[in-house]
## 1
Amino acid sequence: MTDEQSAARAGWQAPGIRDAVAQADLDAASRQRGRRVRGVAEVAHRCPCGEPDVLRTEPRLPEGTPFPTTYYATCPRLTGLVSTLESQGVMRQMQDRLGVDTVLASRYRAAQEDYLARRAELGVVCEIEGISAGGMPDRVKCLHVLVAHSLAVGPGVNPLGDEALGMLGDWWVPIGCAGLHAEAVAHGG
């Protein structure tokens, strides 16, 4: 599958044509997360169903707390499937590959630079300067962040986020109870 096909499949929009944060989006994301979302700069990606699934968050929350997680996945289906990947040891496998694959390690460092540059567009917070999220650039500690980054900026920027997204298939497609059971079995649940 080409990067363009992956982008179209995931509903990616090019930077510069993102939606402004509407109250309906904040309400939807709060409902998805089960708590009020804070410091939302924009909806960074939408699920093909139209709901926000990744938020771009200010580097300092309204109450003053530094917040390095610029891209935050909100869709419960997406986050649940990513959690399944984490529980299956995918992060450990990716981490091991970073130690031996110099091309992958270089691309992952570039992903961190992209992440930091995009956060800096929202403002500089000295307490988290140079600190990204998800373990970048040397570790893999949160696939949710890497997947959110990939969805927000499109394919080809975060290699491990792209890889994890590829493992999820058509994660946004609604399925019935029988399909959920089959999916859980397929993912080791």
## 2
Amino acid sequence: MVHKRSSVWFWIAVAAIPLLLVALPYSATFRNYAAQANEWAEGIMNAHPVMGAAVFFLFAALSAMLAFTSSVVLVPAANLVWGKLFTFLLLWGGWVAGAVVAFEIGKVARPLLVRLGYQEKLNKYQQFVSRRMKFWTTVLFCIAVPSEIPGYVLGGLHYPFLKFLGAIAIAECLYALGIVIAGQSLVAAKPLPFVVIIAVLIVVVISARFLLRTLKKSKSTNRRKANAPR
């Protein structure tokens, strides 16, 4: 019963998020707040370009390690100051760097993560992965789960580092490209491209999660058949 209720709330959220995304960019209040925030961030970045780039990169790295931080809100201002290409490189590079740090922490300090309250999340997502997991499945996992999860989980499993690096680079490249383009659309007061890009990213995440669950069920079924008495 609890599982069914959680599934219902999940699909309600899935339906509500696109509606919210459609409504917000067309709201005058939202656009005013966004414009004020962008002007404030843009002024700081213009006044301190090197420090601003370093802070933006650091926030991107932290957002790949901690669920409560994010550099996404700074993307529109960063686009105006540095352009889309440099903003993309900072965002993507920061996310990948943070994921690598999380991977190393997961590899050597799992007890610390448990003490910090990550045990439930680690156990939840670890059922979808293994040390011998194929590369494309790892890419799927990195796309499907929150950004701070892959490094800790795969590091804890001692997954091959280079395969992890390639998978997380592909996944984060996809998100960074979408977020930078969406941020540019928001700055240019073009709500429709913003809504379309964010909606596409949501569909990608949902599809990746569906495929992961399908693969898990398929493996469980094959394992039961292999262990069944003949």
